[in-house]
Structure formats: structure tokens, C-alpha cells
């Protein structure tokens, strides 16, 4: 398998390196219906994650590793070992890679977020409103980005001015 992956020399405009995946630097653009849509409307599909979950997940995975080791919580070992066993091999692959390779790590990232929320709830019960706000923000982000995840028809201005936070985010 390594021989196959290390021998590929292709390039692609939506390629991204493994260290860019948690930050969603370069989503993969799957579909654009611009040519068949009325002026000012767009239908597009891009593969990327929920910014609230993915960016919060960076800290959650690091925190889950640290606190599970510190607390000797062996239940979490399997979670971060599974996360790392999916992630680390991509660090060794020199060929073109894409954000969707990170999708296999997302379930373990979500479990890490829940684990960290549980720890924060136990240590600081007054933190619950912040936790609830985080969950609400994740739901709002899903609703906001749903059109470009699903191909739903929306205005070009909405996609360009509300959803395109970075130049590398193509919708």
C-alpha cells in the first residue's frame, strides 16, 4: 500500500496536506450548478466540516489525550489511539491528499469533544451554559453551511459574503 501511495505524482487544485485538514484550509469542491442556475443563484457541493466542531475538535483531541493519560482513563485510550492510527499514516504519504481523508478521524474527534465537555461539567458545573452555547453554535453552523454541503439553491451573495470565510474555501 505504501508503495502505491508513494509512487503517485498527480496534483490537484483541491489537494491539501495532512496538517491542513483539521483547519479545513482547502475543502474539496464536488459540484457547481452555476451554468444551469438563474443569475444570482448557485447550487454547489463542497466537502468540509463544521467549523465549530472541527476547530474545537483540535483542542478536544489534544485535551482528551492529555487528561486521559493524566487520569489514567483507559476508556479514552482507544479513542485517541484510533484517531492517531487513522491520522499518523497520512503524515508519511508523500502523494496528493485531500480533506476527505480526515473524515475517518471525525467520529473520534467528536467523542473527544464530548469527553472534554464531560470533564468540564464535572470540574466546573457553572460551565454548562458555555457548553450549551457551543452546541448551539455547532447547530447554527450546520444550518448556515447546509446549502453548500447539500447542493441546495441559494443566492450567490449568501455563498460569497456569508459562507466564504477564506479565499481557499471554494463553493
From TrEMBL:
<dbReference type="InterPro" id="IPR027005">
    <property type="entry name" value="PMT-like"/>
</dbReference>
<dbReference type="GO" id="GO:0005886">
    <property type="term" value="C:plasma membrane"/>
</dbReference>
<keyword id="KW-1003">Cell membrane</keyword>
<comment type="pathway">
    <text>Protein modification; protein glycosylation.</text>
</comment>
<keyword id="KW-0808">Transferase</keyword>
<dbReference type="InterPro" id="IPR032421">
    <property type="entry name" value="PMT_4TMC"/>
</dbReference>
<keyword id="KW-0328">Glycosyltransferase</keyword>
<keyword id="KW-1133">Transmembrane helix</keyword>
<feature type="transmembrane region" description="Helical">
    <location>
        <begin position="99"/>
        <end position="120"/>
    </location>
</feature>
<feature type="domain" description="Protein O-mannosyl-transferase C-terminal four TM">
    <location>
        <begin position="1"/>
        <end position="169"/>
    </location>
</feature>
<feature type="transmembrane region" description="Helical">
    <location>
        <begin position="52"/>
        <end position="69"/>
    </location>
</feature>
<keyword id="KW-0472">Membrane</keyword>
<feature type="transmembrane region" description="Helical">
    <location>
        <begin position="132"/>
        <end position="149"/>
    </location>
</feature>
<keyword id="KW-0812">Transmembrane</keyword>
<dbReference type="GO" id="GO:0004169">
    <property type="term" value="F:dolichyl-phosphate-mannose-protein mannosyltransferase activity"/>
</dbReference>
<feature type="transmembrane region" description="Helical">
    <location>
        <begin position="76"/>
        <end position="93"/>
    </location>
</feature>
<dbReference type="Pfam" id="PF16192">
    <property type="entry name" value="PMT_4TMC"/>
</dbReference>
<comment type="function">
    <text>Protein O-mannosyltransferase that catalyzes the transfer of a single mannose residue from a polyprenol phospho-mannosyl lipidic donor to the hydroxyl group of selected serine and threonine residues in acceptor proteins.</text>
</comment>
<comment type="similarity">
    <text>Belongs to the glycosyltransferase 39 family.</text>
</comment>
<protein>
    <recommendedName>
        <fullName>Polyprenol-phosphate-mannose--protein mannosyltransferase</fullName>
        <ecNumber>2.4.1.-</ecNumber>
    </recommendedName>
</protein>
